[in-house]
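re the bet — no i am not wrong, look at it urself. input seq straight from the record:
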Amino acid sequence: MYGGENDVSFIETSELLSLLKARRSDVAIIDVRTDDFAGGHISGALNIPVDEFECDDTIDEILSTHITEKKEYIVFHCMFSQMRGPFCAKRYSAAKSRRCGSDDDCDNSLPQIKILRGGYKAWKALSNSLGQEESEGMIEH
């Protein structure tokens, strides 16, 4: 768990890779980096810069979209997932709690909130450690 938030936990790069290789449509990846997103990012990731998470209305819109799309996992990350990624995950969790009244009411109806351990840097390292065929489609530029 992270920072006392009941529904925020870390996900390992290998676990995320397994989810993505299974072509699950119920996984959303949110990359909260700003300019460095253009230099490379996880395939299929949405770029929602950290500044967007300062506004409750914006977070509520993002949450509503994920509920409508029936996302099971929302994975946040930044370069290292030490500051920006966890901050945004906690803000998203707070929006989830506001919407539901309590975390217990939402466990089955709202997404699990994850933080990619090691961030994009760990994802890129995993991609580089795999053979070309295995790492195909992991990173977009």
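see?? Residues 16 and 22 are 10 Å apart (CA to CA). told u. also The mean pLDDT is 86. so pay up
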